[in-house]
Structures are given as structure tokens and as C-alpha cells.
Task: inverse folding
């Protein structure tokens, strides 16, 4: 499959990038590592006239911890391989290092960026296909049509956000910075995804994701990301779970954030499951309750990539496993 | 519109007029006649198009040729030196790690970059390193043995 023709613009700064995007709104798209958009273009799911190539913007490639506000800041163009291997990320946000290190394959992690993974387009069997394959059917919601092929009679697009870093980052309480010609805004990642397949996230056409920020972990806390996929490499997650929890110095869970990805059109925080844990000690019985509550709340209803009963079961299993592991990480962090 | 760019491939510099929509894989094969790098899935899921860019294994099917300017590109043709096979290549032959040969260039390129960074990888590290390179023929056993043998003799 060859790429469609386009013009490539190489801004040297974020300002140049957002100005170009504002000037060419509907006809321009951003390319960072290119591992998502180039496939979309080969399949003619996206045919922008211009690609705004951010590789030349060197001040988007960094990892730095700022003591003053306790934020680990990662530039959007930092490759996933660099994020996964970074000593700072491994120390201050190990769940993110785990997630970044499980994306796709080693080769794709050398090109793919953290910004690109956060902004990954949503996925569906009927969408991620070549133009030829899709041409035999009427257009679905995501491609500008009026129907969904996965959820019969569905009134919206149910394509899934399958990025690995998203649930880990949401569990860690991360935020992202978005830039446009009107300035910059910060969006907490648990409000970044719309839950609607047509839009995927809250970014406007003229916006560029510039930075991912992760707050320094609290004392006596642990976080983990677990990915479940068909194969141990290359595949998107069938279910990805991020859990971050804080203890009270003993065995009581003081606070917890659970985030389940790839099971719904946006990563989901099962809040009832979280509240079952708060203020309690872990026990097999409690974990089982938490697992089934998470399963119900996440409600994987979409028969995509794996059957629904299987996904429901896996959500429950992975949430329990992640809580157990995060608990062990928190305890092992004690001197 | 075509742009005049310089690509540094296997130590040689080539001046080319390339349009923005050409991938590095296409330019290597079609403009430079370097057919060793293969077009398999063309969408980043098989690894047969693996080349080294500044020593790192990347998928040339998802790399724009324009983005490969000012970088040192190594393809399978650049692995043997003056007709002498690299130890990795020799190990692949000696261990029966090549059947149809389609995945082989990508495997060898990936193995070389692993051994450069990590001269004595464990079996687990080898498996992780080549986890982006698919092989339909061998079942990976001999490939891993071949890479291990080079690691052990390091």
C-alpha cells in the first residue's frame, strides 16, 4: 500500500506548528513517530493534504522532574523506548515505564512517541481496514456514515481506545498540556477521552499535545500496569489495567485509582470498585468483590477483538492482579 | 513536489529527488535497488522491513524517506564487510536459522543492534529484541540459537 500524496511541513517550534494547523485546519494533520497515522493514510482512513511533522521540534523531546511542583514532565515527542528505559520514569512513575515498554514491538517503540500513544486513534475491526475492504460497505459513524457494524442498531461509534499508556497514566493522575494559537491548556487525562469513537479525545483540530505530566508518587504508594493481549508483542491490549494505590503505613489502603483500558471507547475508572477498597485491608473476598464490581462498571459491551464474556472476565482478573501487585510494590518500597 | 535529499546508506551518500509520500522502504528498494530489505505487511506488524537508523532498529515501511535525512542508515547489504560475512550471518547459516529467508534480513539487522548494545544477552532478552520480527517458517528456535551462539562467543 502506498501513501497518498501530501506536502510535509517541518515546523521548528510549537508556535510554528500551531500557526500552520490553524491556517490549514481541515487539511492538515500532525505526524510525530508516524506509526499510527501512516497506517491510517495507507488505508485511506485519513488523507490530509499537509502533514505537520513535529520531528524537527527538538524542544518536545525531554524528560525532566521538577522538584518545585513535584511533576515529572515528559515532552510529547519522547519515544516510548526512551520513556520505558528512563531512570527518572522508572523511579518516579514505574507503571508508566511498564506501559510504555509494552506498546507494540521494540521497533515501533523506537519511532512511536508518548504523545502519539496518548492520542492514538480508536480502533475497530470495521475501521482499521484498507480502503478496498471498507468499500463494500456503507460508511460507519467513524468514517462519516450513519451506522455501526459492531453494535447493531448502535447510535454512536463504539471503537475502542486501546493505547497502553492511557490507563497507566490515568491511574497515576497524569495531565497533558495542549497548545494552540490561543495559548496553552492543561487537561487531566481522565477527562481527555470523550468516550465517543468519532472524536476519541477533546483535542481541537488546531491543537498539539506538548507535554505529559505525572505527579510524584506519594510515600507508601505503589502503581502497576498489566497488559493482556493475544501475543506477547506487537498486539494492542485486549484489556489493559493501571492501578495506583497508597497505604497508611500499615496494610490499610488509603487511596486508590484503577483504570481499565481497551475495553470501552474511553479508558474507564471503576469508581465503585475503588470505594470498596478505600479504608480497608486486602483480602481474597474483598478482591473478588472489587473485581466483579470493576467488571460491571467497565461494561465491555463491544464484541471487538475478543468476545464480551471473555473481556468481562479478564477485566475482573486483571484488576485483582493489578491491585495485589501494586500493594506489593507499595510494601516493598518501605525501607 | 520532489525534494533533493541526501541519504547515507551503508556508509555511502546518495543524492536523490524524493516526494514526501515515499517511505524509506520504497526508496531503498526502488531508487537504490537495495532489495534486501523486504516489504511484508507494509504496516508495521511484521518487521521484515527492519533497518538500522543511527544504530536503532526501525521499520522502514513506516518511516518517511524525508525523515531519514542526515542519519546513518544500515541495511542488510551493509552487514557483511568486503564480502566477509558478519558472525551473526554465519551463525544463522550454521544453525539452520534460514528457511525461505524472507524474515532473515530483518532478523539479522535486529540481532546486530541487540548485540551491539548488549554483547551477552540472555535468551529472554534475545526473544524480546526480536519480538517485532515475525517468521512463518522456522518457529524461531534456530534463530534464537544462532543469536545465542554469537552472544556466547563474545
Result:
Amino acid at each position: 500500500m502506498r501513501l497518498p500524496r501530501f506536502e510535509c511541513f517541518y515546523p521548528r517550534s510549537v508556535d510554528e506548528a500551531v500557526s500552520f494547523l490553524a491556517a490549514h485546519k481541515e487539511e492538515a494533520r500532525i505526524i510525530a513517530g508516524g506509526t499510527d497515522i501512516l497506517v491510517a493514510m495507507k488505508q485511506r482512513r485519513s488523507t490530509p493534504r499537509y502533514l505537520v511533522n513535529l520531528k524537527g521540534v527538538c524542544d518536545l523531546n525531554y524528560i525532566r522532574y521538577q522538584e518545585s511542583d513535584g511533576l515529572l514532565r515528559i515532552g510529547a515527542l519522547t519515544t516510548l523506548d526512551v520513556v520505558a528505559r528512563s531512570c527518572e520514569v522508572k523511579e518516579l512513575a514505574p507503571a508508566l515505564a511498564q506501559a510504555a515498554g509494552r506498546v507494540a514491538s521494540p521497533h515501533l517503540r523506537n519511532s512511536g512517541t508518548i504523545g502519539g500513544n496518548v492520542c492514538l486513534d480508536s480502533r475497530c475491526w470495521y475501521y482499521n481496514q484498507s480502503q478496498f475492504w471498507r468499500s463494500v460497505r456503507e460508511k460507519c459513524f467513524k468514517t462519516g456514515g450513519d451506522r455501526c457494524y459492531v453494535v447493531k442498531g448502535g447510535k454512536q461509534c463504539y471503537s475502542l481506545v486501546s493505547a497502553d499508556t492511557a490507563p497507566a497514566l490515568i491511574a497515576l493522575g497524569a495531565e497533558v498540556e495542549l497548545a494552540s494559537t490561543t495559548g496553552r491548556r492543561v487537561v487531566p487525562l481522565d477527562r481527555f477521552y470523550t468516550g465517543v469513537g468519532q472524536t476519541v479525545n477533546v483535542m481541537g483540530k488546531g491543537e498539539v499535545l506538548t507535554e505529559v505530566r505525572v505527579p510524584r508518587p506519594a510515600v507508601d504508594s505503589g502503581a502497576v500496569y498489566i497488559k493482556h493481549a493475544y501475543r506477547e508483542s506487537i498486539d494492542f491490549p485486549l484489556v489493559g489495567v493501571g492501578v495506583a494505590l497508597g497505604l497508611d503505613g500499615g496494610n490499610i489502603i488509603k487511596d486508590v485509582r484503577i483504570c481499565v483500558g481497551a475495553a470501552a471507547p474511553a479508558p474507564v475508572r471503576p469508581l465503585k470498585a475503588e470505594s470498596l477498597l478505600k479504608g480497608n485491608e486486602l483480602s481474597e473476598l474483598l478482591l473478588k468483590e472489587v473485581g466483579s464490581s470493576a467488571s460491571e462498571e467497565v461494561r465491555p459491551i463491544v464484541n471487538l477483538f475478543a468476545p464480551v464474556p471473555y473481556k468481562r472476565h479478564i477485566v475482573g482478573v486483571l484488576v485483582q492482579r493489578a491491585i495485589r501487585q501494586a500493594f506489593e510494590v507499595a510494601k516493598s518500597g518501605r525501607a | 513536489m520532489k525534494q533533493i535529499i541526501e541519504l547515507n546508506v551503508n556508509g555511502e551518500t546518495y543524492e536523490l529527488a524524493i516526494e514526501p509520500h515515499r517511505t524509506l522502504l520504497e526508496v531503498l528498494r526502488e531508487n537504490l535497488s537495495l532489495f534486501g530489505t523486504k516489504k511484508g505487511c507494509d504496516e508495521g506488524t511484521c518487521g521484515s522491513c527492519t533497518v538500522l537508523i543511527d544504530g536503532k532498529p526501525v521499520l522502514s515501511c513506516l518511516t518517511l524517506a524525508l525523515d531519514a535525512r542526515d542519519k546513518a542508515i544500515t541495511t542488510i547489504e551493509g552487514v557483511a564487510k568486503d564480502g566477509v560475512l558478519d558472525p551473526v550471518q554465519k551463525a544463522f547459516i550454521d544453525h539452520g536459522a534460514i528457511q525461505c529467508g524472507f524474515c532473515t534480513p530483518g532478523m539479522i539487522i535486529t540481532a546486530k543492534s541487540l548485540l551491539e548494545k548488549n554483547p551477552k544477552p540472555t535468551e529472554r532478552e534475545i526473544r524480546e529484541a526480536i519480538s517485532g520480527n515475525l517468521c512463518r517458517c522456522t518457529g524461531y528456535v534456530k534463530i534464537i540459537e544462532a543469536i545465542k551462539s554469537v552472544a556466547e562467543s563474545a
Observations:
- Chain A has a mean pLDDT of 96.
